[in-house]
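pasting Kinesin motor domain-containing protein for the record, 128 residues
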Amino acid sequence: QIRDLLSRTKKPGGLKVREDQQLGFYVDGLKSVPCENYAQIERLMEQGTKVRTTASTNMNASSSRSHMVITIQFKQVFLDRHLTKQSSINLVDLAGSERQKSSGSEGDRLREGSRVNLSLTNLGNVIR
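structre below
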């Protein structure tokens, strides 16, 4: 399920991934926040990190049970040439893979861990 970590409202069922000929793949309804400096970017990253899904396991007291993708888009405007350059960078923090035996997970934590492991496997299949 895809959630916007900067949005105060949670859409039931999460956000949907769409494809557009011009945009390529994108997340429909994802919040975009203009920033003027690094301090603003850092504040937003901390805000998003605070609302990520975490749980305690034997391996980690605050184990991330989710992946997080941060996209920073840069825009450079050359006023004298009436030219604009744009680029973007994606920062990805993946949830860690944990073996059930090592983590001691049961019930909900075990199901979450299984979903995390499956999503990491699927990501690995796509990247190859």
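The two ends are 23 Å apart (CA to CA).
The chain has one domain: 33-127.
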